[in-house]
Specification:
Length: about 350
């Protein structure tokens, strides 16, 4: 009888990606509702009752752009950990407001953040961009080809907002957030993601001009086609249904109940949307992370800024649901378990 040989290699152990450090950046300039009252026909009470937003941050320095905010958030991430810039393998920048149509802003981010050995690329999925990018970054880690991947969500929404349109200018702000992904063979980390896309929704939320279909011209500028245009009612209804349904789907797929979820982190677009998603999922509002009142909708930056703001609330092994909905339509949900954060070496 032949002896069975024991393989020297580990079998059936899945490498997962886990968040090990977080950074964030918001500009110093605050645009509050009282200031907006002087710019358009609106009021602080009207804005707060319909959106939950009290103020938003605006990048007013004309020498800076999205890549700078992204780089600042990465620098903050590195300052909060014992990781050196030269250790970073890759940067994925989720943004809808790149510095230029060409070249990619991730190249500028790598340069400005001093990431000399990293390669990078942009990813545009609007408000869902950070979640999409997080999944791509996790895949790079899971491939075992990369050890340290930074995922950034950054948007300078003030660059594409018409401050004469009271329906959109009250909603958006500027900011950036970043997370570091590393490999783990523990039970923590990114477990699963589900994403959806419906191109028929493009007509309801877009910046019409500036791309290959409608190139920029004197006419497009005169028609204000380089600003955000949206149908708020359709966005509102679709966002609630899409985020709540995909969260339920990922819980069913992973056999977890809502009372086992420690935290829900939804895209910060509108407080009423956030509350409605929580109600449909039957999760207590105390378990829902909300900071829209401070920053408004920073598009791809809302989720990483929530992680940055509330990182001290998360404990090892916490079950977290993240969900987003954005232009495209794009939406999805990610289920993860919180890991151990890196700390600055003394």
């Amino acid at each position: 009888m032949r002896n069975k040989k024991t393989s020297p290699y580990k079998m059936n152990i899945r490498t997962k990606a886990v968040i090990t450090s977080i950074g964030g950046y918001v500009p110093e300039t605050i645009l509050d509702n009282k200031t907006l009252e002087k710019m358009v026909d609106t009021s602080d009470e009207w804005i707060q009752s319909r959106t939950g937003i009290k103020e938003r941050r605006i990048l007013t320095d004309k020498t800076l752009a999205t890549s700078d905010m992204a780089a600042f958030s990465i620098q903050n991430l590195l300052e909060n950990s014992d990781v050196k810039a030269e250790e970073i393998d890759c940067v994925i920048l989720a943004t809808s407001t790149p510095d230029h149509v060409l070249a990619p802003s991730a190249s500028l981010v790598c340069e400005k953040a001093g990431l000399k050995k990293a390669w990078g690329f942009d990813l545009n999925a609007a408000c869902s961009g950070f979640l999409y990018a997080l999944s791509v970054g996790a895949s790079l880690i899971e491939s075992n080809r990369y050890k340290k991947v930074i995922v950034v969500g950054a948007d300078q929404m003030s660059a594409i907002v018409n401050y004469e349109d009271r329906n959109t200018c009250i909603l958006f702000g500027d900011g950036a957030g970043a997370v570091l992904l590393e490999p783990t063979e523990d039970t923590v980390g990114l477990t699963d993601s589900i994403f959806r896309t419906d191109g028929s929704g493009t007509q309801y939320l877009s910046v019409p001009a500036g791309g290959s279909l409608i190139p920029g011209s004197e006419e497009t500028v005169a028609k204000k086609q380089h600003y955000i245009h949206q149908d708020g009612r359709i966005i509102f209804k679709n966002a609630i249904n899409a985020m709540s349904n995909v969260c339920q789907e990922i819980m069913d797929k992973n056999k977890i109940l809502i009372d086992q979820v420690d935290w829900l982190i939804p895209h910060q677009a509108n407080l009423r949307i956030i509350q409605s998603v929580g109600e449909k999922l039957n999760i207590p509002i105390e378990k829902v992370k909300i900071n829209i009142q401070k920053y408004g909708n920073t598009t791809a930056a809302t989720i990483p800024l929530c992680l940055w703001d509330f990182k001290n609330d998360f404990k090892y092994g916490d079950k977290i649901l993240i969900t987003a909905f954005g232009a495209g339509f794009t939406w999805g949900s990610t289920y993860l378990q919180w890991g151990k954060m890196r700390e600055v070496s003394i």
